[in-house]
Amino acid sequence: MKILITGGAGFIGSAVIRYILTNTKNTVINLDSLTYAGNTESIPTKLKSENYFFQKKDICNVNDLKFIFNTYQPDAVMHLAAESHVDRSIDGPATFIHTNLVGTFNMLECARNYWQKLPEDKRANFRFHHISTDEVYGDLHGTDDLFTETTPYSPSSPYSASKAGSDHLVRAWHRTYGLPVIVTNCSNNYGPYHFPEKLIPHMILNALHGKPLPVYGDGCQIRDWLYVEDHARALYKVVTEGEVGETYNVGGHNEKKNIDVVNMICDLLEELAPEKPAGINEYRELITFVTDRPGHDARYAIDASKIECELGWVPEETFDTGLRKTVQWYLDNRQWWERVLSGKYQLGRLGVND
Fold first, then answer.
1. Is residue 314 left, alpha or beta, with left meaning phi > 0 and alpha meaning psi from -120 to 50?
2. What pTM was computed for the model?
3. Of 48, 232, 283, 317, which is most buried with the most CB atoms under 10 A?
């Protein structure tokens, strides 16, 4: 099986590639334009083999996509390429509209034209798996409600609105053209190789440097946290076993307030990195409350019963075990994040087959 993965140098995409190359004999084609969040160093050299191909291409460039489909003839597409940082979408929404909407449209059209020309057996087995977010649903105001696959969309930020739009495009291409699509919506991911602008790695690295740990508002916003390697298993399960036309919500069963997450990180660092920066007595004293983000959603929580019942996937990590592994990974892999913080990871990027 040949799987084309867009955004494969990103956080979730690289986890999917690591999982496939480690646990299967499938071929992976990694298509990534290597924006600031793309990092080929997130796929260890030891995993790169005759089953792995990298192409520095852009989903917003139709000619790039035609080249990829014609050259590699994939059996499935896992579409993860997206702009995904909410704060950046508030400051500059145009990039999110262009990548998440226009890029997804280009992917759908190129995939459709390719799929329609396939032999009957290959056409029947082809899959277009679109990976999305729970943020398309807006937020939950009660304490017991959960996002299900039929929850109405109510996005709050330019990021989530652009992802909601891309979800609608994917479903429209299935209904109108018959393209065999599957959609997944996931909760907040965390784990190794996470770009440092996101909450958990940002807090870990700021704490190690004795910098403030900025918490929006009162920190009581609730998120459902999903360990990225659990998510990677789920995504592979969906693309290989999921039913065409269906949506699967993927969550970690780990609802936590943001402030509680930050406190847990501080406590783990007290244990795992007791030698603190000069002038710091305890990591928690670095916590700083800042003005809340505009349109900040109050609570996300996923009902993952469908993927659990129909496909047999369940998360292996609790938040306690996953967060400990994550903190330890950042302590053990200083070179990776130091190269990200310095910008050195962007130097000498290769065009093909790195």
1. beta
2. 0.95
3. 283
Which residue reads 């019942």 in tokens? 309
Work out the percent of the chain whose per-residue pLDDT is above 90: 91
Residue 90 scores a pLDDT above 80: yes
Domains of the chain, with CATH numbers?
2-346 (3.40.50.720)
Distance CA 36, CA 80 (A): 15
d(Cα 301, Cα 146) in Å, to the nearest integer? 5
Give strand pairing partners of 5: 30, 78
3-state secondary structure at position 332: helix
C-alpha closest to that of 207 among 98, 96, 288, 121: 288
Mean pLDDT of the chain: 95
Strands (E), the chain: 2-6, 27-31, 52-55, 76-79, 127-133, 181-186, 188-190, 213-216, 222-227, 247-250, 255-257, 287-290
Compute how many other C-beta atoms are within 10 angstroms of the C-beta atom of residue 307.
24
The residue-averaged pLDDT of 296-318 equals 95
Q: Which residues of 319-338 are buried (b: 16+ CB within 10 A; e: fewer)?
A: beebbbebbebbeeeeebbe
Catalytic residues: 134-135, 159
Confidence of residue 85 (pLDDT cuts 50, 70, 90): confident
User: In the numeric block, which tokens belong to residue 126?
Assistant: 């082809």
Radius of gyration of the chain (CA): 20
Strands 213-216 and 287-290: parallel
- Residue 295 predicted with pLDDT over 90: no
The pLDDT of 74-81, averaged and rounded, is 98
